[in-house]
Amino acid sequence: MSQTISFTGFSPWGPARKIGYVIGYSLIEGITHPEMRSKNCETPLYLYVSNKTYPHAIDGGTLEAGKEFHCLACRQYFDPTAYKNATCVYWHKEGDSYLLYIDYHKSVENDIIKLPDFFWGKKISIVEKTPSVKLMSEETVLAAGIVMSIKGNYGYIVLRID
């Protein structure tokens, strides 16, 4: 499961928010890759006494003297009103690729996620997704967008775009 935690326009407790906020870890690089992070960390998030939120990559064990490790975490804002059906859609660059995160909190058929033109024609691969998500798009991002369907009341997908 993605280690991204989002605070978005969807809220069962009140009105929609105007700014979305996510924190998370790389799913493709360093010690935060899911298989590695699960060996080094039991608590993915830490809320400090100052009410600041910090992602955890390591919360136990030891590092040998002189040993280096690579960790990539992100804190990112997005517009939760930019897409009609998706709870959140955001992306960021990791190395030579972009990671695109799309999250839903409702069932939807053939939803189109339109992306900026710098994505058009680039190769798509799935990093992870819930079983409730079906990606219907070709292997590249089209100008019309990425098409997907969500069964049930929740689903997310993380795509790598090269």
Kindly describe this structure.
- By secondary structure, the chain is mainly β.
- The protein has one domain.
- It is built from one helix and twelve strands, in the order ββαββββββββββ.
- The strands form four sheets. A four-stranded antiparallel sheet has the order 6-7-12-9, with no helix packed on it. Strands 1-2-5 form a three-stranded antiparallel sheet, with no helix packed on it. It has a three-stranded antiparallel sheet with strand order 8-11-10, with no helix packed on it.
- The longest helix has 7 residues.
- It starts with a strand and ends with a strand.
Order of strands in the sheet with most strands:
6-7-12-9
Can you count the beta strands?
12
Amount of beta strand? 35-45%
How many domain regions?
A: 1
Along the chain, the helix and strand elements come as: EEHEEEEEEEEEE
Total of helices: 1
Structural class: mainly beta
How far from one another are the termini? 22 Å
Overall pLDDT: 82
Instruction: Summarize the biggest pleated sheet.
Output: 4 strands, antiparallel
Radius of gyration: 17 Å
The shape is: globular
Low-confidence stretches: 1-10
Present the secondary structure layout.
Blueprint (H helix, E strand, L loop, with lengths): L4 E3 L12 E6 L8 H7 L4 E3 L5 E3 L17 E6 L9 E7 L2 E8 L3 E6 L10 E6 L3 E3 L10 E5 L4 E7 L1
Antiparallel strand pairs: 1-2, 2-5, 3-4, 6-7, 7-12, 8-11, 9-12, 10-11
